[in-house]
Amino acid sequence: MRKAWPPGPFPIPGGPHEVRRWFAGGLLTRPMRLNSAAHHQRNKHKGARNMKITEVDKPTISVQMACRVLRESGVPMGVEKMRAGIAQGVYPFGEIVTRGEHLKNDCYTVYTKLLADWMKERGIV
Q: What residues pair up with 108 in beta bridges, in sequence order?
């Protein structure tokens, strides 16, 4: 006779190993994700990948995507550094709409063509 799901109060004493043993013994009626933290980390950036500026087909991209493009080309760039550079006018390929006191509250636009031209001027591409 199978036990009904769920198998008692959670968390199950013994942790994930106990769940595996219950499942292996045929006591559970449906599979359960055993380690949700590892599953989340594995699939966190599933669609995100490094890409070159020539592969971008949109007129504008996010600051995060621009950082990925620059990192792929060998330029060490972080999101906060790029946000600060756009806000100070150091990086001419982006614009900022201020929505508060902090940089994280602002809205950033990075123009793909201007970023490509900036990279060509510096011999990055």
A: 96
DSSP string, 68-84: HHHHHTT----HHHHHH
| Cβ neighbours for 83, distance < 8 A, ≥ 6 positions apart | 63, 103, 104, 106, 108
Helix axes 79-88, 63-72, angle to 10 degrees: 110
Residue 100 has pLDDT above 60, yes or no: yes
Q: What is the pLDDT of residues 62-97, one digit of tens each?
A: 999 999 999 999 999 999 999 999 999 999 999 998
Radius of gyration of the chain (CA): 24
Bridge partners (DSSP) listed for residue 94: 110
- Determine whether 69 is exposed, middle or buried from the number of CB atoms within 10 Å of its CB (0-12, 13-18, 19+): buried
Pick the residue with more confidence: 114 or 4?
Answer: 114
How high is the pLDDT of residue 53? 83
* CB 123, CB 71: distance < 8 Å: no
